[in-house]
Structures are given as C-alpha cells and as structure tokens.
Amino acid sequence: MLNELQEIIAEKLGLSAEEVQPEKSLKDDLKADSLDLFDLVTELEEKYEIEIPTEDLDTLVTVQDVIDYIEKR
Questions:
Q1: How far is residue 29's CA from residue 26's CA, in Å, rounded to a whole number?
Q2: Which residues form the Carrier domain (predicted)?
Q3: Which of 20, 46, 54, 55 would be a feasible disulfide site paired with 6, CB 3.0-4.6 Å?
Q4: Residue among 41, 71, 43, 46 at smallest CA distance from 56
C-alpha cells in the first residue's frame, strides 16, 4: 500500500515517490495546499472505493495517517 500511495501522492504534488515517506506531513513537509488535498482525497476515494467525509480530513496529517485510514476502510 505504501508504494501505491507514494506514487499517487507524488504525482499529485509534483514530487518524487522517494520524497513521500510515512512520517512526512502532507501540509508542512510535502507542501500540499487545500486544493492539493481535495484532489488527493478525490483520487483516493475513486481508487479505493471509499468515502472520506470532510470531518475526517483533519485526521489525515501524515502519509501514515492516510495509509492507516484507508486500511481501516
């Protein structure tokens, strides 16, 4: 799952997959803004056939948070 998410996040943010590590903060370390995060959530919802409610977005701080969230769904 990590490799797959690294590719998706890297593509959305214009980074290399190596830069997208589990401990990295989406906003602070990877410089994702609110539009980037919206696009990312939309793609993750489609790819993994899940719904990520707006109120859950605040819990998705790091790459690992995203992995954990998807694995629980």
A1: 6
A2: 1-73
A3: 20
A4: 41
Residue 33 appears among annotated catalytic residues: yes
Cβ 62 vs Cβ 25: under 8 Å: yes
In whole angstroms, give the CA distance from residue 60 to residue 66: 6
Tokens 């701080």 belong to 61
pLDDT digit string, tens, across residues 3-20: 999 999 999 999 999 999
Select which of 28, 29, 33, 65 is catalytic. 33
Residues making up the chain, counted from first to last: 73
> Which single residue is written with the structure tokens 């539009």?
35
Question: In this predicted structure, what is the pLDDT of residue 36?
Answer: 96
Question: Two tokens at 66?
Answer: 């995203």
Q: What is the pLDDT of residue 56?
A: 95
